[in-house]
């Protein structure tokens, strides 16, 4: 009887621990998500991918499947972010464009970005070539 | 030519006409109208400068709050 009770206690204790671990992970994830994935950072720095005026990532030249999947994944997440955060009175496309202006402005020297004429340019120390409507 | 033979020929001719008519109407059904203008895909984003300026603050906030995807 005593051992049975102990077993029950142990089982519920394990379940509690599992719940606690899950909760801890759930809490820890948002702060970890604030950082770029190393593979994403690497592809950016290598100029395999770049920022487009429409607020999405683009592939520069030919890329590996990993890089293409990475771009697709991030662009889906970006679209979701634009969709859920577009202020009243603006479209998702417009909000994405306004964000794209900022994202191109934020590129670091060596990173790629797409100019309004469609060319992929490498960011240097000077200001990037952006759409005339960008602030 | 007997009267019945003439009548029979008329009927045959009528049937042929009916078949021709049906074929013609079928042909009319199959006809597809092609658009005279080519399909255009507009890649230009419809946004005025004042809207971009207005959205700038929200855009900056979005980037800050989603450091992993930007």
UniProtKB/TrEMBL annotation, chain A:
Biased composition (Basic and acidic residues): 110-122
Signal peptide location: 1-34
Chain residue ranges for the region called Disordered: 110-135
Alphabetical UniProt keywords: Signal
Name of the molecule in the record: DUF1318 domain-containing protein
Superkingdom, natural source: Bacteria
TrEMBL record, chain B:
Keyword terms, alphabetized: Lipoprotein
Keyword Lipoprotein attributed: yes
Classification of source organism: Bacteria, Pseudomonadati, Pseudomonadota, Alphaproteobacteria, Sphingomonadales
Organism: Sphingopyxis indica
Entry-linked InterPro entries: YnbE
Top-level taxon of the source organism: Bacteria
Protein name as it appears in the record: YnbE-like lipoprotein
């Amino acid at each position: 009887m005593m051992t049975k009770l102990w077993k029950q206690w142990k089982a519920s204790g394990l379940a509690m621990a599992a719940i606690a671990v899950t909760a801890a992970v759930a809490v820890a994830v948002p702060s970890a998500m604030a950082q770029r994935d190393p593979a994403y950072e690497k592809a950016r720095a290598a100029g395999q991918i770049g920022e487009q005026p429409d607020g999405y990532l683009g592939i520069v030249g030919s890329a590996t499947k990993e890089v293409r999947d990475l771009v697709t994944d991030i662009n889906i997440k970006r679209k979701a972010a634009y969709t859920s955060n577009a202020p009243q009175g603006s479209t998702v496309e417009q909000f994405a464009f306004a964000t794209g202006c900022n994202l191109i402005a934020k590129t670091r020297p060596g990173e790629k970005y797409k100019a309004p004429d469609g060319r992929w340019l490498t960011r240097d120390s000077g200001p990037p070539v952006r759409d005339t409507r960008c602030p | 030519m007997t009267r019945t033979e003439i009548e029979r020929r008329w009927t045959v001719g009528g049937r042929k006409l009916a078949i021709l008519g049906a074929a013609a109407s079928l042909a009319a059904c199959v006809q597809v109208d092609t658009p005279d203008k080519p399909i255009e895909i507009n890649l230009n984003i419809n946004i005025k400068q004042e809207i971009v300026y207005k959205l700038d603050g929200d855009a900056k906030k979005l980037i800050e709050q989603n450091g992993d995807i930007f």
